[in-house]
């Protein structure tokens, strides 16, 4: 999972892993990796920090990694101020190597944000 800082990647990771959100998360200054079990399939989900000082590590763990089977890009749908930055960072990540055949999910997190139709047109 990639996305700007504060969009809810870590909360989503722990919600997917245990069924409940971890309420005491700190900003991720590296990465968190958890094994997720879903319908007898086990996979590793990487939550990679989104702070501007560490986004350079995305290229090592994102689409350029041979171990990447799919990418989840999380946006904060309530943060319209940083929507352009979120789109630019995704474009930079995809632009470096292209998606190839990798599936990409843009996850609009947080309920009180932009309407889905508007987000769809941005991404």
UniProtKB/TrEMBL annotation:
It comes from the Eukaryota. PROSITE patterns: ARF (PS51417). Transmembrane segments: none annotated. Keywords: GTP-binding, Magnesium, Metal-binding, Nucleotide-binding. GTP binds at residues 3-10, 50. SMART domains: ARF. One of its GO terms (molecular function) is metal ion binding. InterPro entries: P-loop_NTPase, Small_GTPase_ARF, Small_GTPase_ARF/SAR. Mg(2+) binds at residues 10, 28. This is ARF1 protein. The gene is ARF1.
């Amino acid at each position: 999972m990639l996305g700007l800082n504060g969009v809810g990647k870590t909360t989503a990771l722990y919600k997917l892993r245990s069924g409940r959100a971890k309420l005491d998360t700190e900003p991720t200054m590296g990465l968190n990796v958890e094994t997720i079990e879903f319908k007898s399939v086990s996979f590793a989900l990487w939550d990679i920090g989104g702070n501007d000082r560490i986004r350079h590590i995305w290229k090592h763990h994102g689409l350029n990694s041979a171990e990447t089977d799919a990418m989840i890009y999380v946006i904060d749908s309530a943060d319209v101020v940083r929507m352009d930055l979120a789109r630019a960072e995704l474009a930079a990540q995809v632009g470096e190597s292209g998606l190839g055949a990798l599936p990409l999910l843009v996850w609009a997190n947080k309920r009180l944000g932009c309407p889905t139709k508007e987000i769809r047109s941005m991404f």
